[in-house]
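Example: HutD family protein.
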Amino acid sequence: MRIRRLDSSHYRRMVWKNGGGITTEIARSPAAGDDFDWRISIAEIAQDGDFSIFPDVDRELMLLDGGGIELLIGSEENVILDTRYRKHAFPGEAPVSCRLLDGPTRDFNVMVRRGRCRAELLARTIVGPQLLFPAVATNWLIHVASGEAICKDRPDIAAAAAGDTLLIEFEQRAAQPLVLNGSGEWVMVRLVDSAAEAAALA
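Written out as structure tokens, the predicted fold is:
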């Protein structure tokens, strides 16, 4: 098992692909290039406008802060994200425009390459230890929205403070789960490598 603490001061800030906003990239795999398997970021939306197009990518957006947004996604009914941690999934190739409901927002953004990876996006209020059970081809990304996250029995890994992220890569199935202690609110992403999972189950 490999654990990395990603300090918020090292995240990459960049302009959206279509120039319509700012994204703070937390992590991606591979680490460089446009042909990612997965990419996790926080989007800052300061005005109404269109989202960038990402063919063959599955996306999920979760409201972190702000008065909320309305998403217009192709022919779907409009989607309102007006409560913190409310989320919605949509295909990256769909035409999407966004309308702010009450000022700028910050939104957690998960993108995975369809057929290569799939993701599960969760938000948790931490009231006790969190157990992550190792599974083949599965990684976890834990973003600390508030409070802190501490890896039990891993003094080599500094506590992740608000804004920081833990990237946990399970290389193989293990008998014991990873125990995380802490407080506050975490955004958790479970990432599964589709090809590696299929090979393990074959």
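The radius of gyration is 17 Å.
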